[in-house]
Amino acid sequence: MAQSRPFKESEKPTQPRKTRQKAAIREVFLAMDRPLGPQEVLEHAGSRTEGLGIATVYRNIKTLVEEGWLVAVELPGEPARYEVAGKAHHHHFHCEACQKVFDLPGCPISVKLALPAGYVTTRHEVVLYGRCPACA
Predict the structure, then answer these.
(1) Which helix (H) or strand (E) element contains residue 127?
(2) Does a structural domain hold residue 67?
(3) In a domain, 3, yes or no
(4) How far apart, in whole angstroms, are the C-alpha atoms of residue 97 and residue 82?
């Protein structure tokens, strides 16, 4: 009969850690249902979890991206924001007054634009800018 031995550090099975900080951060993303920056996450999750700091928010966002639960939303000239992964194809609206980013459901863009012969579209991104209802 083989004896069990303790795992070496490099052999330990990896499982996502469940912490109250990570749970609070997940809850914020689900409740807000729009792309959020780390500072926004801290503002909303801080009221749910005592002692939550920006370093913890960044660390948990990084982990949630690595786990595939969050994806980065990149806007030109802006720091990354993050949203829950798995959403259908959509675009974003960036309010120039409050700086919040909102999802725009669906896609009004026809990817069969007048491309030169031989070009193939693999993806596209559209960001609309203006003022959200709260700022208009």
Answers:
(1) strand 127-130
(2) yes
(3) no
(4) 20
Query: Is 1 part of any domain?
Result: no
Closest CA to 67 of 32, 95, 26: 26
pLDDT digits (tens, 9 = 90+) for 34-60: 999 999 999 999 888 888 999 999 999
Helix (H) or strand (E) holding 104: strand 101-104
**Count of domains forming the chain:** 1
9 belongs to a structural domain: no
Is the pLDDT reported for residue 4 higher than 70?
no
124: its two tokens? 């596209």
Q: What is the largest CA-CA distance in the chain?
A: 73
pLDDT over 90 at 18, yes or no: no
